[in-house]
Specification:
alpha+beta, 9 helices, two-stranded antiparallel sheet, elongated, about 325 residues, nine-stranded mixed beta sheet
Length: about 325
């Protein structure tokens, strides 16, 4: 049974390794590196599981804290957690394997995420070649966005009800630059195709609803924001009592689709390719790198101290054996 558990943990490690941010993957948002070559990054959906990995990548959690490791297993390996969490001896070995897995893989845990938001459009402005976003759906100029995990509203997480200590179910992201969306530039050719497609749904409405009031209800679009997160800045809580994590990040680009399946692209922007880093973004990168180095130095120091303590213990044990037996201990 233990071999099965360890094999499953190894499989989990391999699966995570396959989705390391920065590895080219098909059907992902593209960007450009310094050499100008086309690269593609994977942007994860925001779920309780992917957020749990993000928090380790940001060094929010403590590998020596039992609850942090156990809750990670509860979120990511529910079946194993349910089967063995109440068996002290089995679970101690599983926890040890989980700690090793986290330490070995947290540098490859996701930092890039996608946020999806449904919007509605008004009539097409042929002169300016753009759609205006419906007033109640416009995104005013802002740097802060709140997003909940797609499964945040689930009644339980592996049987756990409510907030999971250390693992907020949503984010408050502060961007390095403000973002707004009040209109959408679209060429007449694409606009006509979009309108034709949406008119099918409009004409399917009852005749008394085929008016301007209901027109916007059929002109839905889907904004997909591509985010990279750099730093954890503390916690917050919604009025409803849901824990959120304050994080700093950058908007690397966005795409707007006519359909939920993301087959009909209306517009896209790639900020990785198009812009120079702002001072705030450079500060965020520097802060992240410094935090990462501190954590690596701390882990190296702890490993050195552990080795020294082990050597000291063995030396003291040998001296004690000499004093008790009156002779030198046998050579190893």
């Amino acid at each position: 049974m233990k071999n099965f558990i360890y094999s499953k943990l190894l499989l989990l490690a391999l699966l995570v390794a396959l989705v390391v941010p920065g590895i080219p993957v098909s059907a992902q948002s593209s960007s450009t590196d310094l050499l100008g070559k086309e690269r593609k990054y994977r942007y994860e959906k925001v779920t309780i599981k992917t957020l749990s990995q993000l928090y380790w990548a940001l060094d929010k959690l403590d590998i020596e804290k039992v609850a942090d490791v156990d809750y990670f297993m509860m979120i990511n390996e529910c079946d194993i957690y349910k089967d063995y969490n109440q068996h002290e001896f089995e679970w101690r070995e599983i926890r040890k394997s989980a700690k090793n897995y986290i330490q070995d893989n947290k540098k490859s845990f996701p930092l890039r995420f996608e946020f999806i938001q449904e919007l509605r459009l008004k009539e097409y402005d042929l002169k300016n070649q753009q759609f205006e976003v419906e007033d109640e759906y416009k995104i005013p100029r802002t740097r802060r966005f709140e997003v909940e995990a797609l499964d945040a509203a689930d009644a339980t997480t592996c049987g756990h009800i409510g907030n999971i200590p250390g693992y907020p179910r949503g984010l408050i992201v502060e961007f390095s630059r403000p973002f707004e969306l009040s209109s959408l530039p679209v060429t007449p050719e694409i606009a006509e195709k979009y309108i034709d497609q949406k008119m099918i749904a409009f004409r399917a409405l009852p005749e008394h609803q085929q008016n301007e009031k209901f027109l916007s209800s059929t002109r839905d679009i889907y904004l997909v924001m591509k985010i990279k997160i750099f730093s954890y800045q503390g916690g917050a809580r919604t009025r409803e009592g849901m824990d959120l994590a304050n994080v700093l990040g950058v908007l690397e680009g966005y795409e707007v689709y006519a359909d939920q399946d993301r087959k009909f692209l209306l517009h896209s922007e790639n900020y990785i390719r198009a812009r120079k880093k702002s001072k705030l973004e450079e500060d965020l990168i520097r802060q992240y790198q410094e935090s990462k180095k501190k954590q690596e130095d701390l882990e190296a120091k702890q490993a050195t101290e552990a080795a020294a303590n082990t050597a000291k213990y063995q030396e003291e044990k040998a001296i004690k054996e000499v004093s008790e037996d009156g002779q030198a201990p046998a050579a190893p």
